[in-house]
# Entry
Amino acid sequence: MRWVNRHARRSERIFWGSLPILLLVLLYLFIAAQRHAANPLDKILPLPGSMATAMAALLFQPDPLTGQLVFWADTLASLQRLGLGLGIATLSALVVGLVLGVLPPVRATFGPLVTAVAVIPPIALLPILFIALGLGETAKVALIVIGIAPVMMRDIAAHVAALPREQIIKAQTLGASSWQIMIRVALPQAMPRLLHAVRLSLGPAWVFLISAEAIASDVGLGYRIFLVRRYLSMDVIIPYVAWIAILAILMDVALTFASQWLYPWAHGERH
Amino acid sequence: MSALLSLRDIWVEYGDKIVLEKVNLDIETGSFVSIIGPSGAGKSSLLRVVLGQEVPSRGTILLDGTPLTPECGPDRGVVFQRYSVFPHLSALQNTIFGLECAKAPFAGRLFGHARRAARAEAEEMLDAVGLRDSMHLYPAQMSGGMQQRLAIAQALIKQPRILLLDEPFGALDPGIRADMHVLITRLWRDYSLTIIMVTHDIREAFSLGTRVLALDKRRHDPHAPHRFGATAVYDLPLRDRSEPAASEESDAPDESERNEEERTDHE
# Structure
């Protein structure tokens, strides 16, 4: 049988999918154990026991200075920034993308501007944001928005503009105005694409969040990682990175399910 | 007979390429006009001009004696070969769409009593095209024939003055196509429609139409083939069709076709 025709069953897929991850974990444990055999005080590759001890302090013991549980305070702060940034970016991408995609004069006027903003590396704008908006939350959220919104706008606009011309003509012969075409024809068909665009933007959004937190912050997952880096605290950094990965995966899965549940027509014959 | 649609000296040019030249046509109420011709003879351009999707470079189009605005409107319905229905709406929602656009300019949706009335009207329309049992399906769940039935129902609910069909049955397999011919003939008679249909299928053109227009170039310059446009080279009025379509489907159109071509050739 050709390899292109070999489809794994569901149970097999879980086994084969987890195999490389397990192997990597085993490899890490093996090397870490070797290093600890040579030097029991090794900090570079901590063993699970020391990670658990270090994390327990952050998870359950209030910080003497602020009285907060550090890990949860970091998570909450980061998710809040990320959520605000993603929300604002998504909403503006939807509105701008629809208007650019449906209305040719608007596309002609503002299309080049969106393209120009999209090609600026957002991190290069970070100093401007810090100068203009201060070092508070606004600058961090703004960095996420500026980082991901233009790409999403272009994606939605291109998707809407690529709707079959026949559909737009048909809608007009059914008496639809520009506004009705926008909200009844373009908007519903842009929604699954928008959720997809948010999924793809999650990665860059985390990058901008961690960057902003690393540079100027006093709480947040990125702040903590860069803070404990000074003490070579790999026993904190590795669990934090794993936690960020879990959060990102959960968001991605949630968006996928939301799209299938809300827009079954966009996902093939399965509805 | 009164002309519902009049084309006066229509030219369509793209740059220096002339697609249609000097097209003069009068289309009567209740006629079923088939447009045939070789590829690139401007069949679809003519349809787009009538539809308002394209502005002719010269000439005027009159609908009921008033010039048409160069924009699509609810007075001209259309069914394309593909992409005529909205993939994100069920059959019923697709059909109600036209009613909602007219009655809900801002929300684009109807609620309560108005919605129930529109729904009843749409169900009746779906029944007429044989889709009553499939009204909650999405287009992706329907076969090509069902999608075209839906596209027809969607257009007819607006009661257009003219229904334009752009190779509507071109992508369907022969059995389904025969069913669609029966359907469109019945709808044409029941709703007293005026239909203009572009087709590649000469047999279909003659079996369905009350009038067949053949578009082609009258003149041909071998050094600049794009400088002469196509026009209606044959305009064949067929006999008045009062007998059912099924019997016409069976007789071979070849002979009558040739005779009528000869008869009208000198026009």
Q: What stands out?
A: The helical segments of chain B are 43-51, 91-103, 112-128, 144-156, 174-190, 202-208, 245-250, 254-264. Chain B has two domains: 1-75+164-267, 87-159. Chain B touches chain A through 36 residues (CB under 8 Å). Residues 243-267 of chain B have pLDDT under 50 and may be disordered.
